[in-house]
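Reader question, answered in our methods column.
A reader sent in the components of a multi-part assembly and asked whether the whole thing could be modeled at once rather than chain by chain. We filled in our standard form and ran it. Here is what they sent:
COMPLEX SIZE: two components
ENTRIES:
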Amino acid sequence: MARLITHYLTPLLIFFLLLIAWISLAYGSTSVSVFAGLSAWFNNEQTEAALIIGEIRLPRTLLALIVGAALGMSGAALQGLLRNPLAEPGLVGASQGAALGAATVFYYGVFASLGTLATAVAGLLGAMAALFFMLLLAGSGRPALVIMAGLAISTVAGAALAMVLNFAPNPYAMQELVFWLMGSVSNRGLDSLIILFPALIIGCALILSQRRLLAALSLGEPVAESMGFSVKKGSRITVLGAACLIGSSVSVAGTISFVGLLVPHMLRPFVGHRPDKLLIPAALLGAILVCLADIAVRGMPLGRELKLGVLTSLIGAPFFVWLVWKERKRWL
Amino acid sequence: MALITIDNLTVEQRLKKVSLELHRGELLGLIGANGAGKSTLLHAIAGLQKSTGNIKIDGNSINSIPPHERARTVGIQPQAVSSAWALTATDIVALGRMPWGDEDETAIERAIERAGISEFRDRIIDQLSGGERARVWLARVLAGEPQALLVDEPIASLDIHYQLAVMEVLKNYSRENNGVIVAIHDLSLAARFCDRLCLLDKGEMIALGTPAEVLTEALLSRAYGIPVDIDLERNPPVVLPK
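And here is the structure of the entire assembly that came back:
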């Protein structure tokens, strides 16, 4: 059975992704035919079905899929690069950096000339800066150091974010910011895809271009260097790709934690633990899980909306505890 | 022409003006006390360590050769290697094909055969013993089929049976028109298997030549600081501390 899954992993994941996407389009308080709605929307008809499917559920579904794919892929890439199973956008400080960047733009109109792109660019810069300082501080990929450096950078970014909140122009702005930080893919509209989709393509392309380096890095930096890789250059490209994915998804959907940690762990046994073969399945499973979590969030009773990011944290945090427990056995 | 020509190779604080040549078909042993500069020399030849002086491969300066091409010619197995992930032995050997950008089955099979690891090729690296792991690392670098093979203490964790087996593999590999440099602590095995020896002491090369020329009481007690018992006439030769 496990062998069968290994062999058909990618096609299987693609099948489940399409299935979940379909469920996500079909699921909601009003029952609408997905087919009818989609075709009406494509034909620019102003029916109720077209409005619900095309304007509400389609953007939400696509957004969940893209954000999930970005988080899954960036998690797999960071873990491979740092040779550390605990590396995750949220744990290495990248998400907090992106949130700080995007929040600053949100409220203080930095990069105003960039228009709607401004938050995404700021998110990207924030994620890049956070990753850069984390790597500088950690100095190597050693698990304990990466986590400590990530914690330090998260704390700094968190403090700065608290300051941004503190000086928010008005209480409503502050509330809006807090809700946005909790992570959600609802009510974002198709416009946000204009930023997210290219960022996903570029980020994935950058990371996939370095997949052989990630494989070589399994045996450590000296071996990778000796096999003709420029570890420094390749690491920069990978970090840039991860920052692109994390920055854009955080700037649109807020912080959705633990997806990047959970997904690579679930898949590793099925790809023979190879970091290069993990990337695309991680993107697919990331997309599936975030979309699934979003469906769950939508299923909550009205008026008590649970944010998507809160749900993934509730599921992911115990898993993180379990990982620490497992790691502990190696040391005690 | 020599396969590798090293001229006045210097690494700050670690190596002082080392000059030597590695020929095709030769197994060259690198000996010396801990901290003498053996690993540094191997790393510098492989381009992993910044150095001054000249290193030529087949007459071409190492700086003029693109990294991937250099990696196809010079393969190194550093001393302390571990796998970050639970890979199988075969997957680790396949990584040795990275410089070529392929997963050439015949080269991988040949390396597995040469290192004698076929019986546990599908096992996870974490589950192997130290000796089994050492041979997997050796198979990894052999899979790249480099003309110049540099190995840093490959037999340090092995029992006597596998010490001989690994030295045999290295010797045979050198006989296929390749050059091999091995850093080694066991002087008896160095005398038995190596064609020439290079003795390093505090970053300086104090002797280079046949085992009989290098393994003398005067040179060894200078390098190791203790008296040694040398009997190269015996078969196999014996070099032991007194």
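What stands out: Chain A has 15 helices and no strands. The domain at 61-331 of chain A is CATH 1.10.3470.10 (ABC transporter involved in vitamin B12 uptake, BtuC).
Send us your own complexes using the same form.
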